[in-house]
Amino acid sequence: MKNTDNDEYKWSTNIAPLIGIPMYDKPPGIDVPIELRPRAEYDINLELLVNKVQNNFKSVFNDILNNDNDKKIKINNLVDDLIHCYASLINNKNEVENEKIQSIWTNIINLIPKENKELGLDLYNNLFKIIVKPFVADYLHNDDLFAYQRIAGANPVALIGVSDLPSNFPLSNEQYQFVMGENDSLSNALKQNRIYMLNYSYLSGVVAEDGYTKPEGSPGTNPMPGYSYAAIALFSVSLETKELTAVAIQCGQDPDDNNEMFLATEDVNSDRYWAWQRAKYVIQAADESEHQLSTHLGLTHLLMEAFALATLRKLPKDHPLHRLLITHFEATNRINHNATLALLGEHQFVDMLFAAPLENMAKAVIDIRLSYDFKAHYFPEALKQRKVDDINAFPSYPYRDDGLLIWHAIKDWVREYINIYYVTSTELSLDKSFQAWVKDIIDNGKVKGFTQIKTKDELIDTLTMIIFTSSAQHAAVNYSQPGWLMYAPHTIGTMAYPKPTSVTGSTQKQWLDMLPKVYRASQKIIIYTLLGELYHGKLGEYIGLNYKLVFNDHEIIKKNGPLDKFRKNLANIQKIIQERNGKRPYPYEYLIPENIPASINI
After folding, report:
1. Of the chain's two ends, which shows fewer C-beta atoms within 10 Å, N or C?
2. Which residues form a coiled coil (predicted)?
C-alpha cells in the first residue's frame, strides 16, 4: 500500500486477524504515540471500573468458597490480576495479556467448585453483587421486551420492512392470526407496511448449526460444543397498540431442515411455551453475533479507523477540517489496536462467546467492513433502505426517532461550519490538503462508496456521516451492551444446547441447558462492564488533548455562532428525548446527547 516518505502514520493491511482491513501500522508491543491516546481522565475512569469489577467478582467467588479462607486469598489475588489484564487490553500495557488471562481463568476454574445447574437462574443472578443485574433479567421471557429490543436494543439496525414474505419463510395467515387475532390478517399487514423481519442469512458462514467444540475457557479446560443458527423472525405492528409485536420464528434458512414455524405465546401452560422461549434464544444468539461482528466492530470501529488515520496523515493541525474532526477520533486508532485486536484473539472474548470458528468470524468482519457502502448508509437513507422510515406504519422506533434528531443537528452544525470556510464548491478543488485527504481514503482506506467530493453538499453529507458514526451510532451500539447483552440468560452468542425442532414438547430444562456455563457468563459481565460503562468525552464538547477548545476562529465560537447553536440544539434534543422516554414502555437513553461521547474510544 502506497505511503509518502514524510507520512508519520503508516497504513497497513496485514494486521492479524483482520488481514485486508486498512489500519494504522503500529509496531507490536508498544502503545500508540501520545497524540493518539485519550485525555488523562480516561485512565482514571477505567481504573474505577476495574475496581468495581474486581470487587464484584471477589464477592461472587468468596460466596462460592464459603469458609475456605486459603482459597479466598488465592482467588482474590487472581481476580485482581485478571481484571487488570482486561484493562491492559484497553490501555495496552503489554500484548502478552491474552495468554495471561487464559492462565488466570484456568486457575480460577480449578479453585471453585463445579457449578450446580440445579440452581437454575440463581447460578447467573449470583454473579451480580456490586455490578447491578441488568433490567432485562426481570423480563426474561417477556415477548414485548423481545420485540422492543429490535428497535431500542444493542442491535437496532437488523429489522427490515417487507411487502412480501421470503419464499423460505412459509408463514400462513392462520398462523399469523393465531398470534395477532382474527381482526388482522397477514395480507393486510403486508399491504399496510406493518410487517418487519430479522433475517440472519448472511451469517451462514459464522454460525455453528451442527455445533462447534471449543474449550470452555483457556486451552486444556473442558471442551464444549456451541450452537448458533442463521435464523429468521417476523414481527408485526399491532393494529391496536401500534407497537411492534413478535409473531413467529424459524430457527434456520431451510424450512425443510428441521426448522418448524414457532409462534409467539405467553401462556406458560401451553405446550408451545418452552419451544417458543428456546426459539427466541436462537434469535438472541444470532442477533448478538451480528451486533458484535457487524454493527459494532465492523461498521463503527473499523470503518472510522480509515477516516481517523487519513485525517492524521493528510490534514494539517490548523486546517479547518482537522479542527472539526480531530476530537471525533480521540483514541480511536488506539482502542482499535488494543482492545479490538486483543478481544479477537484465540480463546478470547469473540472466540469464547460466539459459536463459530474464530477464523470464520474474522473473515466475516473483514468482508462486512470492506463491502459496506459508505454513502448508501447515510442515516436517513439507511432507514429507507431497510423500509423502516414510515412513521405512520411504524410509529414507535426509538433508535430511528432519536437518531434522526441527532443526525440533523450534526448536519446543521457541519453546514454552518463549512459555509464559513468554503464559499463555493469550486474552492474544494483548490484545497490541496483536503484533496490529499480524500485521495488517501480512496487509495488506502478501502471505503466502498467513498468517491471524489466535488460539491459542498457532498462534503457536508460526508462529514455528517463521519461525525454521526463516531459519536451517536457508536454510542447506540456500545453503551447498550450492559443493559441488553450482559445477562447471559437473556442473550448469548453461543448456545450450549441445540435449537428446538418441534413446536411442542420442549421443557424449561431444555431452555436452561441452552445457557452458557458460569465462566462464559462471567466473561460477558467483565467485558460488557468495561466496554459499556466507560464514558469519555461528549458530543459538542470539542476539547483537545491540551484541554483547550480546538477552535480559535471567532466566527465559529462567538455567541449564537455555529458551535453555540449546535450545543443549544443538543440541549433541546435532550429535553425532547427525555419527554419521549416518559411515554415509552422502556426509556431509550443511549442517544440522549449527554450520553454520547464524541469519539470511538472504547
Report:
1. N
2. none
Distance (Å, whole) CA 87 – CA 85: 5
The three cell numbers of residue 528 are 460488557
CA distance 87 to 35: 20
Within 10 A of 529 (CB to CB), how many other CB atoms are there? 22
User: Do 481 and 153 contact (CB within 8 A), yes or no?
Assistant: no
The sign of the dihedral angle between the CA atoms of 82, 84, 86, 92 is negative
Q: What is the pLDDT of residues 54-99, one digit of tens each?
A: 999 999 999 999 888 999 999 999 999 999 888 888 877 555 577 7
The whole-angstrom separation of Cα 550 and Cα 328 is 11
> Looking up cell 466535488, which residue turns up?
454
pLDDT, one tens digit per residue, over 558-571 is: 999 999 999 999 99
Q: What's the DSSP call for residue 84?
A: H
Reduced 3-state DSSP string for 304-331: HHHHHHHHHHHCCCCCHHHHHHHHHHCC
Q: Which residues contact 321 (CB under 8 A, 6 or more apart)?
A: 311, 315, 433, 434, 437, 463
Show me where the domains of the chain are located.
140-284
Q: Which of 79, 85, 115, 84 is nearest to 99 (CA)?
A: 85
**Structurally, what CATH architecture does the domain formed by 140-284 represent?**
Roll (3.10)
**Does the model's pTM come out above 0.70?**
yes
What residues have CB less than 8 Å from 278, skipping those under 6 apart?
Answer: 499, 500, 506, 510, 511, 514
Dihedral, CA atoms, 109, 115, 120, 121, nearest 10 degrees? -20
The Cα–Cα gap between 190 and 63 comes to 53
Task: Give the angle 319-323-329 at the CA atoms, nearest 5°.
Answer: 125
